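User: For my dataset I need records formatted as: sequence, then structure tokens, nothing else. Please produce one.
Assistant:
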Amino acid sequence: MFSIFFLLLKFLLKNPILKRNYQQSICLPSDPLFIGSLAPSVSFILLQSFLSSDVGKTLCSYRWSMGKRLHRKENELTGESVQFGYDSWDNLFRADYRGGSEVESIYKAPDALGNLFRTEERKDRKYGKGGRLLEDRKFAYRYDGEGNLVLKSRLRPDDGDEAPQWQEGDWACEWQGNGMLKSVKRPDGEVVSFEYDPLGRRISKRYKGTTTRWIWDGNVPLHEWTDEEKREGAGDENLITWLFEEGSFVPTAKIVGNKAYSIITDYLGTPTHAFDSKGDKIWERELDIYGKTREGDSSFIPFLYQGQYFDAETGLCYNRFRYYSPDTGSYISQDPIGLAGNNPNIYAYVSDTNNRIDLFALDELYALVARKDGWYPVFEYGKKNLVGEMFLKEGDLWKIGTSKDASKRYTQKYLKEIGVKMEVLYSGISRKATLLLERLKLKGYEAWKGFLPPGNKCHH
């Protein structure tokens, strides 16, 4: 196996396209919760200064409306655009894709519980408790006792009350005891099987006698290859090396043999283009508002939203501890903590895929504490605005909360306005453990003081 040092030395120094990737000018903060709060119109600029002259090309332009909502995106090279619509709760509701005189509208209409529908009338799907999709216009969905999808069967007029078995045209899922997806039986009868390490990282995928294997660097894949095994001394034309931004899930480069490709991503870290070492565009892809490939393909760069690896064999995205379906816009297994997370929809992805991501359901527990003696706002469950003020001393607790990335949960402007600073209490633990700690600390505070911290509306 080639050493990481050798790969970096060989390709980062000799292939300017990799260095060029870091010259991409991003005019927008990376914080997914506060995108659009600084400027109403921004663009991504690709600087091609690695060639003989400095030539700037605008790939995409983005226009933002009030409330941190992406209003319009335009491909500056093709002229195609997409306009987004939102409901009164700021949920992404629809997208109108325009190419010339043609317009394609895609609905992602949520109800009060976050269940998604592909029609404005919200009558094309049936849901059960907890956001469990039961039926759409093509398939019926059935689950096991743990809430895992076990059968996605085509609607047939002869379906009775008996538990159906897989038939040609259906999808069937088998699960491990720890809740990880073990295998998927396709409509053609072929089976795709998976293996994981103790940390939940997928290390192999087998389909039609071909095995794809991965070696990980922390939380991101480093090496990938296919067939039975990668032996010492074998050629490297089958070995793929992925490079990511340090400490993130944003891919920046793909290395195959002696060829290097630079990956361009949008403001959320979703890959959109790839260029070879000569600066020629060799891949481009556009996702719809469900995360499904709308134009192009996901074979060359399989990463969709951050933390997601697309499997063409199943149509699903491996999202570390769960699998996401771009067809339905939801996970195929429930949140491990169930309804304890204070979210009535335990299969839902994020409410707005234009400004939020879900990496792999690992959270941080944080505290917001008073910067100095003074009066601080008090909030109450069921009320949007503050209900009063409370005097806190420097260092007193104002709020306890959980987040996938506590450092990006609030803007510095917001923290300054409130007058608090953030302290991360626990990091890199499961969502279930994080929420448990949050509840324990809030209940302990309430038992001590007789009320919740002024910034907390409730304890889960």
